[in-house]
Amino acid sequence: MRPACAAFLLLGASLPLSAQAADTQTILRGIDRSVQNRVSRVLSFTDVEHYAVYRGADLTHPAAQMTVKVTYRKGIGKSYQVLEQSGSALIRRFGLMPLLENEKTINLPGNVERSWFTSANYDMQLKSSGPQQVQGRACYALSITPRRKAPNTLIGTLWVDATTFAIAQVDGIASKNPSVWSGATHMMRQYADIEGIPMSTRARAESSSSLLGRTVVTIEYGQYNLRLVPSSGLHSAP
Question: Regarding the domain delimited by 17-230, which CATH topology (the fold level of the hierarchy) does it fall under?
């Protein structure tokens, strides 16, 4: 997974009452319902993802790039089709391709459930009683600590929409390093509402090691095409 946090400030009394304050248990139940709603409604989707790898202090010129089409099918997982690639063949072969393979593994049935941001997978604590502004949205901030350590689980902060409790952003450090040769990996992912479903829009991961130095990977997501179960077809509302 996939791995700069947006600035935020406290909102004032102009917020609607429903977004001004909520207790932790209400927010946790809302988060769990939002995740379950996404799981229940999304049958499949495709999107186009652009990966860029930067080395050292140069965050302007990618050392390698790859654009892929992603296909997700419920109960099956994800598959990837490389559309374009450029830059270092070595980085693409030993950096980006293993990253895609790892994403495949994480999203397999039986694995993907353990990476969901839910109260079953994470201990979550409300960081402030009122919402904060994140990417133009009123959001609650919660500190999160995974109940199990893995390279795809984070210790950090989760922001959820103050009205729908859908995930808006997550930022933190991987709870477990992917290898003994790598240092701590800092990851950030942003989400937007697409057809009522929170979907990734941007991600960033940064790590360093004595062998490879500093590496930054950015991912831009777009061109979503979702196949959904109508919300009226669900037995219970989120």
Answer: outer membrane lipoprotein receptor (LolB), chain A (2.50.20)
